[in-house]
Amino acid sequence: MQFDFQNVTVVITGAAQGLGYEIAKSFSLAGASLALFDINKEKLYQVTDSLGGEVIPLVCNIADYNAVYDGMRKIEDRTHTIHVLVNNAGIVSTENLMNTSPEQWKQIMEVNLFGAFYCMQAAAKIMIHHKTLGRIINIASLAGRNGGLMASPAYSASKAGLIGLTKAAARQLAPYHITVNAIAPGSLESEMLNSFGENKVEALRQTIPLGRLGKFQDIKNVVLFLSSPESEFITGVCIDVNGGQYIAP
Fold first, then answer.
1. In a domain, 210, yes or no
2. Is residue 4 part of a domain?
3. 174 phi and psi, to 5 degrees?
4. What is the CATH number of the domain that holds 53?
5. Do 88 and 23 touch, CB atoms closer than 8 A?
6. Domain for residue 229, yes or no?
7. Are 222 and 239 in contact (CB under 8 A)?
8. How many domains, in total, are found in the chain?
9. What is the pLDDT of residues 153-194, one digit of tens each?
10. Sheet holding 238-241, edge to edge
11. What does each C-alpha distance from 84 to 40, 176, 197 come to in angstroms?
């Protein structure tokens, strides 16, 4: 399926590397105007230069409520409205329950859950004000579905919370014709996964019925679909993209 996002403003958080960067490239190739949030200034500006086209880079810690609102207002001033928000930014931890410190718990919640909420709230207010038929896509995780295979309880809890937030927001934003959905990727080929070591990566691969790790392309395809007019009657769902690693009842 070919997607056309000409005259569409897409906001992507955590866009300077990994999945966020790949999502940004896909939207750019489909003609979208981009606004990219990331805390890493150097990488963010490198990504901006590599994408070309209309890109607004915003150095922002999404755990900072005021910084998020300031960034969203800048986007509104430049592009008039926001059509799509992809909440991708997040941090991961592998600490077990007994070793997780209060500081680690707080940091993961502030970025993965609070930050997504701040971005969703700020973007939705702009969408509503301009009567935009908006799309919000939250990148959750398999860990939010099954408690995690190697991720920490803090990470799992933050992603489970994000799935719950997606459902609640979908109900409350539906009267404004704004859809809110989540995607829960399984184990993806990535630098982060490789850091676990070859033996652990292979053990994860063996838990996937389709016999391979996920690729960024697998997730990008779903993000583009959920952002498109073709998905206008889908809201409040979490789509599992994991090769059968977890199958919802």
1. no
2. no
3. -55, -40
4. 3.40.50.720
5. yes
6. yes
7. yes
8. 1
9. 999 999 999 999 999 999 999 999 999 999 999 999 987 777
10. 55-59, 33-38, 9-13, 84-87, 135-139, 179-185, 238-241
11. 22, 14, 36
Report if residue 78 sits inside a domain. yes
Residue 66 near residue 60 (C-beta atoms within 8 A):
no
What is the domain extent for residue 136? 9-184+215-239
Catalytic sites, residue numbers: 155
In sequence order, what E strands does the chain have? 9-13, 33-38, 55-59, 84-87, 135-139, 179-185, 238-241
For residue 191, the number of C-alpha atoms closer than 13 Å in the C-beta half-sphere is 3
pLDDT above 80 (res 129): yes
| Backbone φ and ψ of 45, nearest 5° | -75, -30
Run of H or E residues at 121: helix 116-129
Q: What is the identity of the amino acid at 205?
A: R
Band (pLDDT 50/70/90 cuts) for residue 118 is very high
